[in-house]
Design brief:
By secondary structure, this protein is α/β, with parallel strands linked by helices. It is 14% helix and 31% strand. It is built from 5 helices and 13 strands. Strand 1, helix 1 and strand 2 form a beta-alpha-beta unit.
Length: 278
């Protein structure tokens, strides 16, 4: 038997919520996974939640976000195998909230109020919230700080498997007026039809300013029959290798060596190649 355990959060612009699930929902998940390891936890939420306490115990986790009027039909089709899931995370999900760049943002003496009302909002003092991570937002923060997330940006599961191969770049050395063509092959190595979202990142090996470990520069979704393979080609131009110069107030492409990275998520890089901007 399989247990379907549905949990979620009430997200809205008017108030913040805890990263942890409400106590009664957390207890419900723990009870389900304790008694049946074939538990599928369905998460209805607008952002990340803490899943560290049961992530390894659940048979599967289906992150449905806020699925809308036809969401239950889509969920049923995925659970029944009629549809092969192909979504990828647009965020990073931390193991603990202390790993987040937003940790500690609450002013001293404040706490999250689950019974927040519009009247309380009018009466409450207004605070400035400072974003101090700079360009290291999202997945860039965790990579800079060497923080291992629970699920990385771009992660997603499928009922089939994919193989990446044959990475080629049109030029090994180039100037700022060139356009690079990055091509690679993706093959469905499983037994059923599926779709994969291949992601293209670049890494600046040495820079005069602080830059992220890697930066997403392109992606493409490809649908493949079992055993089928396709060539994906993505372009990179001057802007993709540039950073914003606070001195010149403009985008600047600094000469040097870059690593072209292709993978299925920000954490799972399958192929790499180096190029030099002259």
């Amino acid at each position: 038997d399989v247990v379907l355990c549905n949990v979620g959060t009430d997200d809205r612009e008017g108030k913040d919520r805890s990263f942890e699930l409400p106590v009664n929902q957390e207890q419900k998940v723990q009870l389900c996974v304790q008694h049946n390891p074939r538990t599928v936890v369905i998460v209805s939420s607008g952002s990340g939640i803490r899943m560290t306490g049961w992530n390894e115990k659940a048979g599967a986790i289906l992150y449905s976000w806020y699925a809308g009027q036809n969401g239950n039909t889509a969920l049923a089709e995925i659970l029944a195998g009629k549809i092969n899931p192909s979504g990828k995370l647009p965020i990073t999900i931390e193991k603990e909230f202390k790993d987040s760049p937003g940790y500690g943002y609450l002013p001293k003496g404040e706490s999250l109020d689950e019974k927040w009302t519009s009247q309380k909002e009018k009466e409450h003092p207004i605070y400035d919230v400072e974003y101090t991570e700079g360009v290291f937002s999202g997945y860039r923060w965790y990579e800079k700080k060497n923080i291992e997330p629970l699920y990385p940006f771009g992660f997603g599961c499928s009922y089939t498997t994919f193989e990446y191969s044959d990475l080629t770049v049109s030029k090994e050395t180039f100037n700022e007026n060139d356009v690079l063509l990055v091509s690679f092959q993706v093959k469905n190595t499983g037994k059923i039809k599926g779709a994969e979202i291949a992601q293209l990142y670049i890494h600046d090996i040495e820079s005069t300013v602080q830059r992220p470990v890697k930066e997403l520069k392109g992606f493409e979704k490809v649908e493949l029959e079992p055993g089928q393979s396709k060539i994906i080609s993505l372009q990179l131009s001057k802007k993709d290798f540039s950073f914003w110069s606070v001195k010149t107030k403009n985008w600047f492409a600094e000469k040097g060596t870059f690593t072209i990275q292709v993978g299925s998520s920000s954490k799972d890089i399958k192929l790499q190649s180096q190029v030099e901007l002259q």
